[in-house]
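User: Here's a chain of 92 residues. Predict its fold as tokens.
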Amino acid sequence: MATNKKIPMRKCVGCNEMKSKKELIRVIHTPEDTIVVDDTGRKNGRGAYICPRMDCFMAARKSKGLERSLKMTIPEDVYEELQKEMKAVETR
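Assistant: Prediction complete.
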């Protein structure tokens, strides 16, 4: 008897759709008080998940979904850095 393996699901903070964890990008607030994109999905810190699309990133920025999920205010320069990283991920 084969058992079905459970697929972890997460909600995008931009479009609010449930997707598998592997489809989404994790943005974390590290214990060192920095905000970075977690490529491995295993770094320490409070995480929020977002689709690898620029429109989801812009929606999360407008609705302050990342700020709510990470429980902190995000400065404008950090949003610009995240936007550059999102563009790099989107083109992969």
